[in-house]
Amino acid sequence: MKSAKKIGKLLVITGLSGSGKDTIIDEFLSRFPHYRRLVTLTDRNPREGEIEGIHYYFVSPEELDSLYRKNMLVEKPLKYGTSRKATPKHEFKKILKDGNHLVWRIDTSLAAGVASGEFFKRIFSVTEYELLKQATKVVFVKASIDDLKIRRQFRDKTQHDQSNYSRRDEHDKLTLKKYESHFEHIVVNKTGKLKESVDHVVEVIGEKPNPE
């Protein structure tokens, strides 16, 4: 009789835009090369250094809408700054069937649903829901208002739209008020303190870097 395949692990990283999620993920992955990004879709062009299939799947706005209509995404495409993003369902096969360890960078409202268990219960079968619930750790990344503004302006440059971020922040505040009790793990990512922030994430997953 064949033994059941071992399910992988899912580390969810969330937080407001500009909190430093990608920077934390990059440093985390350099310490834990057996983890990979859970690759999401975006309808913008690649930024400098971004690689197709590693950082994102880059598609046109029309392609993203088509995938949603075909029920091939786990959520409705949401706008983040100057682009929209969404997650393809097939990425979860890597955890459930291939035993991969993945890092998933997602919107705060979606992460709240993942942390509470509501998301997995709605999208997956009962068996898959139980497996993913056990395999998942959710980390909320925070930063000061000043750090958020500086990082956003530096990243977006001439496309920076403060009014759009203000609307998003208000939405996220309401989400946090509703779901904050579900975020068990919170990391405060201060400028110049990346190592400490990533050390905190490492404590959450309870692993040692670079296992044999």
UniProtKB/TrEMBL annotation:
Keywords: Kinase, Transferase. It comes from the Bacteria. It holds the Pfam family Guanylate_kin. GO terms for molecular function: GMP kinase activity. The keyword Transmembrane helix does not apply. GO terms for cellular component: cytosol. Residues 8-206 form the Guanylate kinase-like domain. PANTHER family: GUANYLATE KINASE, GUANYLATE KINASE-RELATED. Belongs to the guanylate kinase family. This is Guanylate kinase-like domain-containing protein. It comes from Candidatus Woesebacteria bacterium RIFCSPHIGHO2_01_FULL_38_26b. The lineage of its organism: Bacteria, Candidatus Woeseibacteriota.
